[in-house]
Amino acid sequence: MERYKPLWVWMIAPLVVVQAGIFLDYWGDFTRNTWAVHVHYWNATLWYLFLIAQPWLFVRGKLDQHRTWGMIGLLLAGAMVLLSVGQLNRDIVYANFARDNPGEMGPFEPWFFFQVMMMEIVLIISFAIAVLMAIKHRKSPQDHGWWMASTAFLIMMPGLGRGLQNIWIGLYGFTVENTGALTTPIYLCQAIVIAMTLGFAWKFAVLRHPATYLAVIANATLFVLEPIARSRAVQEFWRMLIAH
After folding, report:
1. Is residue 34 classed as helix, strand or coil in its secondary structure?
2. What is the tens place of the pLDDT at every residue in 167-182?
């Protein structure tokens, strides 16, 4: 467990990266965000703070507090899953608007929102698996700690991706011709998340841990989703499943 002593300090980095990414998208449009968006944002923020506090309590021997907050963390994790699922319909709404109003959303086309939605599904399922595995391995501090820490990298994409996309649009404009805004920022986002995951795994000597594999593979899934998202049959399937 010696190598995990500085983990709580390192867990500050994912929090800062995500907050920097989502800052303008959330705070710049604060009053127009829906109640669901506010709850989702603060639940995710509390989860990152939880991932900092828990290893801090553990390395200081505050095990009773660690266990107590661990039970509270289960509520946060459950809320994270439910709130993420609840946000999926928003992607369908955006996709339908882009389909029915060509050019009104600048470069954004319907398939893009389906790609993001499928990525979010992969990530939230992976998040749930990581939390369940952390519970299963709660008697092994090394395994439990890394399964929990790995969840930080499974919920970075939406916030960081939007931040990078806003920067790209700020540089090249919100125009139909700026098609790079559809893929470049989110692919860069996933590259950053994967690099951070591997960097942390190397630092804490868990490169071959199942949690590392899960986080890397889940985030890398985005790179193969575009052709699937472009399928009209796939789009109609998701509309039928989620929007009705």
Report:
1. coil
2. 999 999 999 999 998 9
d(CA 175, CA 193) in angstroms, rounded, equals 28
Q: What is the spatial distance between Cα 79 and Cα 84, in angstroms, rounded to a whole number? A: 8
Q: Domain count for the chain, please give it.
A: 1
| 122 vs 168: CA distance, rounded Å | 25
Structure confidence by residue, pLDDT tens digits, 183-214: 999 999 999 999 999 999 999 999 999 999 99
Residue 221 burial (CB < 10 Å; 0-12/13-18/19+)? middle
Q: What is the dihedral of CA 122, 126, 129, 130, to 10 degrees?
A: -170
Cα–Cα distance measured from residue 87 to residue 156, given in angstroms and rounded to the nearest whole number: 15
The alpha-helical segments, DSSP class H, found in 28-100 are 35-59, 63-86, 88-100
Task: Output Rg (C-alpha) for the chain, integer angstroms.
Answer: 19
What range defines the domain where residue 89 resides?
Answer: 2-242
What does the chain come to in residues? Answer: 244
Q: What is the pTM (predicted TM-score) of this model?
A: 0.94
